[in-house]
Amino acid sequence: MTPAPTVLPVLPVLPAAQARALTLASRPDVGIPELAGVVESDPALTIAVLRAANTASQAPVQRVLTASDAIVRIGLNATRRVVTATATNSAFGDIARAGIDLDAFWDHTLATALLADASAWPNGPRTEAFTTGLLHDIGRLALASADPERYRFVVRRVQGGASPDEAERAVFGVDHITVGRDVAAACGLPPQMVDAIAQHHVGDGSALAWVTFNGRSLAVMLGFGDGVSVATPAVPVEVGPGGAVVRSLGGSAGIRMKIAWYRGLFVARAAA
User: Fold this and answer.
1) Would you give the DSSP letter of residue 49?
2) pTM over 0.70
């Protein structure tokens, strides 16, 4: 029996270390010492950044052993992306009990981030687009983490034909879009990112919202389901309106290779 709808009594937020990491990673003016400090304060972030630096194709034989050296090697922009991906996975990684297909969810999330970033204009907020794309479904993670057993009812409703948003409102009294906006604001993310996360299904209000929406739309068309809805078969996006964006990432195969690289950072964290 589906539980009665109820708004979450306490808004789920990220642990302090992950929230601080996301806040810093979202700032385009963050410097190496400040970012290295927050990375070194969290084992998961340290492992991920070191792994990223030591597995990069341009990495020399000499392995780096400190977060500061790793950031210098891969650059601030790449570090911000690694930090955002790892902090999100570290904070909300254990949601299997919620019935979400975690492989599909993270593939969809990373595909959206990569495609949103590639959709951004050359001199625009490319890393900001990647971060926003990566966090666009943070509300779903928050709901599933807050009450995984209740979220299973959401998944069952979706399997019965309801849309995820409708199912979340029926079970929780609120959907992941609203929760995502509030969690992003509570984490101290910039207002433009908060607004873009709130608009990721429609793309209204700002260029950042549009590229996030476009990245998500292209990810779905490429067959990257969100872990709750049934994934639709991929369509030949490479020859459609979004073809240039997809081709810039090496096509569907290139996107999957990049996703595998990021997910390898999560595996390293789990094995540590």
Assistant:
1) H
2) yes
